[in-house]
C-alpha cells in the first residue's frame, strides 16, 4: 500500500489536499508534445501516488485539458479535488455574471462531472467589478455546481474586495525562488483571510529543476521564448547560471534541485500549495517526495537571500500578458 504524502488544508474550511498538487497544463502541448494515452496513464499514476489536487483551465489546449482529465474523473471522481479556471480567453467580459455561468456549464460538460471543487477567475476582467463576478460565483456555490471560489493573479486590494462578497478559498499566483513579488502584499492578505496560496510554475517553468545546464537543453525553446521573456536569449543563460547555488545545496543534501526548490516553497507556510507539472512520471514522483524534505531554517533563509525578489532576468510574460495581471 503506497504511503499517503503529507496533506494541507485548502483554505480555512476546505478539504485536505496533497501538499504537492499537479498542474496539468503541460499535458496539452504547451511545453512540448504530449500523447493523450500516456497522459491519461500519468494522471492515474498521480492518484496512486496520493496526489489528489489537480489543476486545469478551460483555456489549456482550448478545452483539450479538461476533456483529458474527464477520462480520469469517469472512474475516480471521488479521489480528486479538482480545480479549473475561466476568463483568461476573453480580452473583456470574461468576468460578466452571465459569462461566469456560461463558462462553468461548458467546463462541467467537458469534464463530465456535476461539480467543480475549486473554481477560479483566471484573469481579472477590468470591465466588470470583481464584486459582480464573485457574486455570480457565489451563486454557483449555492447551486452546488462549484464548492469553493478562487482567484488567480490578483492584487491584495482586489482580493479583499472579493472576499467581502464571498469567501475566497484560494489564490493562484506564480510563486518560486524566481518569482517572489507576491510576498510583499498578496501573501500577507491570503494569510489574513485564511485562504491558500496555490503556487503555479513553482520550478520557474523548468529552469529551477537543474535539468537545463545550457540554452541547448531547453525543449520547445522558440515557443517558450515567445511567451516567456525569461527564456529569451541572454536572460535564459543568466537564469540558468543563477541556479548554481540551488544545485550545490541539493547535491549536499542528496536531493534534486527541484525537490529543494519545492521544499523551500512549502517552508514559507502551511497555506502554500505548489502545483508543479511534468509529463515524466519519475519527475512527478520526485516532486511529490519534496513534501518529505525538512529544511533547516538557516538553509531556507540562505536560499531566500540567494534568490531575492527580482533576481531572475526578464519579465514573467510578454507585455500584453503582463498588462492583464492585476498588480
From TrEMBL:
InterPro entries: AKR, Aldo-Keto_reductase, NAD(P)_OxRdtase_dom_sf, NADP_OxRdtase_dom. Keywords: Oxidoreductase. Transmembrane segments: none annotated. GO terms for molecular function: oxidoreductase activity. Pfam families: Aldo_ket_red (PF00248). Residues 19-303 form the NADP-dependent oxidoreductase domain. The keyword Calcium does not apply. GO terms for cellular component: cytoplasm. This is Aryl-alcohol dehydrogenase-like predicted oxidoreductase.
Amino acid at each position: 500500500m503506497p504511503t499517503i504524502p503529507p496533506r494541507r488544508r485548502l483554505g480555512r474550511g476546505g478539504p485536505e489536499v496533497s501538499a504537492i498538487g499537479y498542474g496539468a497544463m503541460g499535458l496539452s502541448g504547451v511545453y512540448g508534445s504530449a500523447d493523450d494515452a500516456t497522459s491519461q496513464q500519468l494522471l492515474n499514476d498521480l492518484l496512486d501516488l496520493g496526489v489528489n489536487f489537480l489543476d486545469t483551465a478551460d483555456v489549456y489546449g482550448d478545452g483539450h485539458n479538461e476533456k483529458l482529465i474527464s477520462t480520469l474523473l469517469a472512474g475516480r471522481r471521488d479521489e480528486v479535488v479538482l480545480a479549473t479556471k475561466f476568463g483568461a480567453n476573453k480580452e473583456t467580459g470574461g468576468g460578466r455574471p452571465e459569462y461566469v455561468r456560461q463558462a462553468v456549464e461548458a467546463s462541467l460538460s467537458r469534464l463530465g462531472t456535476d461539480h467543480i471543487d475549486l473554481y477560479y477567475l483566471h484573469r481579472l476582467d477590468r470591465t466588470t467589478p470583481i464584486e459582480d463576478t464573485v457574486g455570480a460565483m457565489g451563486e454557483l456555490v449555492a447551486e452546488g455546481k462549484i464548492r469553493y471560489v478562487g482567484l488567480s493573479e490578483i492584487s491584495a486590494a482586489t482580493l479583499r474586495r472579493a472576499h467581502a462578497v464571498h469567501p475566497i478559498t484560494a489564490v493562484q499566483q506564480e510563486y518560486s525562488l524566481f518569482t517572489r513579488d507576491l510576498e510583499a502584499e498578496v501573501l500577507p492578505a491570503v494569510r489574513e483571510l485564511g485562504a491558500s496560496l496555490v503556487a503555479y510554475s513553482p520550478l520557474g517553468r523548468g529552469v529551477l529543476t537543474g535539468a537545463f545546464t545550457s540554452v541547448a537543453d531547453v525543449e520547445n525553446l522558440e515557443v517558450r521564448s515567445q511567451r516567456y521573456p525569461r527564456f529569451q536569449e541572454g536572460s535564459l543563460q543568466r537564469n540558468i547560471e543563477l541556479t548554481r547555488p540551488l544545485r550545490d545545496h541539493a547535491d549536499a543534501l542528496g536531493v534534486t534541485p527541484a525537490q529543494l526548490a519545492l521544499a523551500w516553497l512549502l517552508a514559507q507556510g502551511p497555506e502554500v500549495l505548489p502545483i508543479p507539472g511534468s509529463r515524466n512520471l519519475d519527475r512527478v514522483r520526485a516532486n511529490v517526495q519534496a513534501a518529505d524534505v525538512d529544511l533547516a531554517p538557516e538553509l531556507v533563509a540562505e536560499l531566500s537571500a540567494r534568490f531575492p525578489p527580482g533576481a531572475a532576468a526578464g519579465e514573467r510574460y510578454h507585455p500584453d500578458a503582463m498588462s492583464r495581471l492585476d498588480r
